């Protein structure tokens, strides 16, 4: 218990003192995870809408694949991304391995099924009268998509939060395709693993706190937004 | 008056089951047409076709003389529908009402237009800042109507606009519909189970039953349940225990629906001794109004809550001194009943 409380005190000091390596890891984490989430949302929202909204041949199979991908371990995604991005892989010529971009690619593979699956579920749950109302007002397909996503915004926010939570806390992808290079691809989670391995529990706890604070801030922001929309 | 819609051999199937089958139907411009019939009779299906939400499985639909498959987006946008239990977007009243104009990229003077549309349905402009969740059922229905009226549509389709709303809202909806017809020359199709309400507002009524067009005039439908008398004839027993025996109906089932033309219902208020027989019923007049395009009158009356109408001449009304609220004797020509 002493270790934890002492570690907590020292962690605050570490953060207040502006430790360069800690802030570098925080910056890298926030940068790559935000890019990953944004791209996952950009691609995943229309795909999730299509999966939830339209009935087509093979829909059930695709749904099963997407749901299965939800459970894919991050280290497996990291491994696949590694083989793709290494010099021997099909995308080796782009020299992306051990760069933040490589982590972003891996995290998109992690976040995309979450966004697609949860968006599809939310769209399926939207009141069926919405389509008739929108179509009956003369909305075209694009306008129906936008309006449906806006109507499902509360659920989609939860989907985005879930994906962000999974992305920001993953370690397997960042470690395997990022390489945990200091001031370059070291993220909060890889730094925690490294520091804990070295016996630097204080730094590990400080970084853990950062993750907690980020999650708390995201939740507070979204809850405030939700309250503002509903009241 | 020119035909706005022309439907030929329209059939609609859901999951292999035929839910609509209309051989021919012409709907004219700048009229208010009422559609009635029991639940599942095909009214909503017909409306979804008329509003271009669904294409018919078979048949031809022409709008303004153009095949519906060749209609441009603008023509389709000139037809709007307020569905049964309309869905309001999870936004403010203002955003709900302005939504259709934004879809059409007509964003000039939105505030003024929203305020005008609210006024048409009897809502104060202060309503515009309310959230969708802060409205009663009647208010939500009126907001949904305002969201369509703001578009000044060529055709406005209302699927049971008065179901679940209070009398005041029903009256305000009626006034808004009449204003739309007058101000924007809007053609209006309405479905309702409230025959009196329909009679007061419609130029023409169309009955639907089991997906088929029954008759495009004043018609009365008498629904199940039926009882059987000792001779196995069908008997309609009204809530006040009045009985209408349908002779020669031994072969009819208890869930049959009787269709009676308004010409086949006779009414009498004074000097009715020779009029009365064992099957005479007592009803109460609720309204009398002129049938468009003829000099005849339609007398609306109810027998223990069941609405009927009878076609009479003006002279007969004067002779019989018929007024709303009067009790009348009613004879229904049971031998002319059409069973569906």
The tally of structural domains of chain A comes to: 1
CATH superfamily of chain A: MetI-like
Span between N and C termini of chain B? Answer: 32 Å
Domain unit count of chain B: 2
Question: Secondary-structure blueprint of this entry?
Answer:
The complex is a heterodimer of chains A (231) and B (340).
Chain A: H1 2-16, H2 20-53, H3 59-70, H4 74-85, H5 100-125, H6 129-136, H7 141-151, H8 153-169, H9 172-178, H10 188-197, H11 201-230
Helix pairs in contact in A: 1-11, 2-5, 2-8, 3-5, 4-5, 4-9, 5-8, 5-9, 6-7, 8-11, 10-11
Chain B: E1 3-14, E2 17-28, E3 32-36, H1 43-50, E4 58-63, E5 66-67, H2 73-77, E6 79-82, H3 93-103, H4 110-120, H5 137-149, E7 155-159, H6 167-184, E8 187-191, H7 195-201, E9 204-209, E10 212-215, E11 219-222, E12 227-228, E13 234-237, E14 243-246, E15 258-261, E16 265-268, E17 281-290, E18 297-303, E19 306-312, H8 314-320, E20 327-332, E21 338-339
Parallel strand pairs in B: 3-8, 3-9, 6-7, 7-8
Antiparallel strand pairs in B: 1-2, 1-4, 4-5, 9-10, 11-15, 12-13, 13-14, 15-21, 16-20, 17-18, 17-20, 18-19
Helix pairs in contact in B: 3-4, 3-5, 4-5, 5-6
Give a quick rundown of the structure.
Chain A is an all-alpha fold. Chain A contains eleven helices and no strands.
Outline the structure in words.
- The complex is a heterodimer of chains A (231) and B (340).
- With 231 residues, chain A is mostly helical.
- Chain A has one domain: MetI-like (MetI-like fold, Orthogonal Bundle).
- Chain A is 79% helix and 0% strand.
- In chain A, helix 8 runs antiparallel to helix 11 and helix 10 packs antiparallel against helix 11.
- The N and C termini of chain A lie far apart (43 Å).
- Chain B is an alpha+beta fold and 340 residues long.
- Chain B folds into two domains: 213 residues, Rossmann fold; 120 residues, OB fold (Dihydrolipoamide Acetyltransferase, E2P).
- In chain B, a hairpin with a 2-residue loop joins strand 9 and strand 10.
- In chain B, helix 3 crosses helix 4, helix 4 crosses helix 5 and helix 5 packs parallel to helix 6.
- Chain B is globular.
- The model of chain B has no long low-confidence stretch (mean pLDDT 89).
- Chains A and B meet through helix 6 and helix 7 of A and helix 2, strand 6, helix 3 and helix 5 of B.
